[in-house]
Design a protein that fits this description.
Rossmann fold, 2 domains, seven-stranded mixed β-sheet, 9 helices, 13 strands, 29% strand
């Protein structure tokens, strides 16, 4: 099914305003980490129930974890738990899911967990919800910021986003599209896992902040040898803060690749979380039962604090198939 993603709605909220007074939900879900932009939004949000998800990859001790908010809960993922097991178990803390309005702050989520959450919501018949994303004022270590700090243990499909792939006889029959982020070592891991596959990088442009684009390009260049020189001359672009344009770019690119005879498509969202949301939306709407997989390099640890400040908050109205 082909869809016009441009009809989806997003709006910008000023974090210095009383934005929360104009928005309220029955259930608010966020992933806990040390970033100011995650904690401030959780505290300000108006909801009948709030739930923190604590990813084990952030390595918070029991003393560092948040206390249960008023009328809320804290779900702590077990060490080494897969994204599907984590989200399914967390949602058992939310029996009211589907009975009222829902908002998910995607700012602190592990990308695979966020993607599987969308898969579960769609399977449960939840058709609409709001998603928030807080743009950072800056990354603490600029272009040297690292999010994944532990060992990359596996490059595999994200649960629920496995494709039905076809045998291919030549390298040009397969394509890997990488949403290029700051972590060139992760890009190399993914590229090396698909050594005989053509590769394209999707860069976030316009970026979240003007200097972020240069930092992003510097890191993409560090992975150029693994990704291949051809890609540097023909990158893809989508706004770093727009999941809907990202989904549209994937739609157009993959349609063109299909016309060229490409059989198998692999997608890897290593860029901003709004772009990861766009990858998930594209797959949910158009790649079910197709030879298209979302793959990811899974690491054991992630940095719990990588940004400072909030420049603005995006509110997306998400519609699921």
């Amino acid at each position: 099914m082909s869809i016009d993603y441009t009809v989806f709605y997003k709006s910008s909220l000023d974090p210095s305003s009383a934005w929360a007074a104009d928005h309220a939900w029955d259930l608010f879900v966020s992933a806990f980490n040390a970033n100011e932009r995650v904690r401030r939004v959780f505290d300000a949000a108006q909801a009948g129930k709030k739930v923190w998800i604590v990813h084990s990859e952030y390595g918070f001790s029991s003393e560092e974890r948040p206390a249960s908010p008023a009328s809320g809960a804290v779900y702590v993922a077990a060490e080494g738990m897969r994204e599907d097991d984590c989200i399914q178990a967390c949602l058992s803390e939310c029996p009211e899911l589907g009975t009222g309005t829902l908002c998910i702050d995607i700012s602190g989520f592990m990308r695979p967990h966020l993607m599987f959450l969308l898969r579960v919501l769609a399977a449960r018949g939840i058709r609409t919800f709001d998603a928030l994303y807080s743009e950072p004022g800056q990354y603490l270590r600029r272009e040297f910021t690292e999010f994944a700090q532990g060992t990359v243990t596996d490059v595999r499909p994200v649960a629920g986003f496995e494709g039905l792939h076809q045998p291919s006889m030549a390298a040009d029959e397969d394509l890997l599209i990488i949403g290029a982020g700051y972590e060139h070592h992760l890009m190399r891991h993914v590229a090396n896992a698909k050594t005989n596959t053509r590769k394209l990088q999707l860069l976030g442009f316009p970026p979240l902040q003007a200097d972020f684009y240069q930092e992003n390009v510097l890191n993409a260049h560090r992975a150029a040898e693994a990704v291949s020189a051809t890609n540097e001359n023909h990158p893809l672009f989508a706004p770093a803060n727009d999941p809907f344009v990202t989904a549209s770019v994937l739609q157009d690119t993959i349609a063109e690749q299909r016309r060229r005879g490409t059989k198998n498509i692999y997608l890897c969202p290593l860029s901003s979380r709004p772009q990861a949301l766009g990858f998930a939306l594209y797959h949910l709407y158009e790649a079910k039962d197709e030879p298209v997989s979302v793959i990811y390099p899974f690491a054991t640890r992630y940095a719990r604090e990588t940004t400072a400040g909030i420049s603005r908050i995006w509110k997306y109205r998400i519609e699921l198939p």
